[in-house]
Amino acid sequence: MKKSFYLNMLKLLLIILIIMVPIKRPAFNDDILRIHFIDVGQGDSTLITIGENSLLIDSGESKASEKLSTYLKKEGIKKIDHVVATHPHEDHMGGMELIIDNFKIKNFWAPKVTVNTRYFNRMIESLKRKKLRINVAKEGKIINLHPKVKCEILSPINEKYDNLNNYSPAIYLNYGNRSFLFMGDNEASVEQDIIERNSIRCDVLKLGHHGSSTSSSEIFLDSILPQLAIASCGKNNSFGHPSKAIIKRLQTRNIKLYRTDIHGDIILECDGNTITILR
């Protein structure tokens, strides 16, 4: 009887100890680069992480800001080392106010161009409240994301453009033997400038301008030779993104296309050699 009593007490004690031990979130892996192409509807937002380091490119429209904020928190993001607002269109920076207000941001990047719109002015007000200055995103600037990662801004090259889309920083990221190119809304003229000034290849291309026919020119694709392309666009969007001409152009070159309007959130993992697609 005594033996049974003590055994039961011991089991109870073990259960209590197990309950009291805090469950720790798995440690961030310093060797795995993760790229999240987040489904924010007809807009852009890309999260890049390696170890505890993070880079957020764009925030989508204001109506997607709550979803984006929830997504980031689900991924364990409390601080963001670098935020890039590619250009002042609502579908790229409409949700920036909420991101700036709700996360600790170390570095904020944007091209040197302004517009007098509600979403842009509110973003600037949020930056002022947080005492964040804007690092000017332009050709030649380096984003120090992680010691194992090279992250370089290839554009804007010129100080003035007629089209706001072309102010987008094109971001070229290398990790080990793999490379990624994020084109914002850059159109064919900037693509041409980039390949004339840089000898680059990429494994993954985030299509410029949501897969619009104004971007992803044949000469550009044949120069950078991507294996995989991502189109960030909304379901049944009124713009027809991605363009049928671009889809055919990619198919002709055996470039696999993933789209947020069809596949939802798209996550890539890279160890420096292998790229794995998670969905």
TrEMBL record:
<feature type="domain" description="Metallo-beta-lactamase">
    <location>
        <begin position="42"/>
        <end position="235"/>
    </location>
</feature>
<dbReference type="Pfam" id="PF00753">
    <property type="entry name" value="Lactamase_B"/>
</dbReference>
<dbReference type="InterPro" id="IPR036866">
    <property type="entry name" value="RibonucZ/Hydroxyglut_hydro"/>
</dbReference>
<dbReference type="InterPro" id="IPR052159">
    <property type="entry name" value="Competence_DNA_uptake"/>
</dbReference>
<dbReference type="InterPro" id="IPR035681">
    <property type="entry name" value="ComA-like_MBL"/>
</dbReference>
<dbReference type="InterPro" id="IPR001279">
    <property type="entry name" value="Metallo-B-lactamas"/>
</dbReference>
<protein>
    <submittedName>
        <fullName>ComEC/Rec2 family competence protein</fullName>
    </submittedName>
</protein>
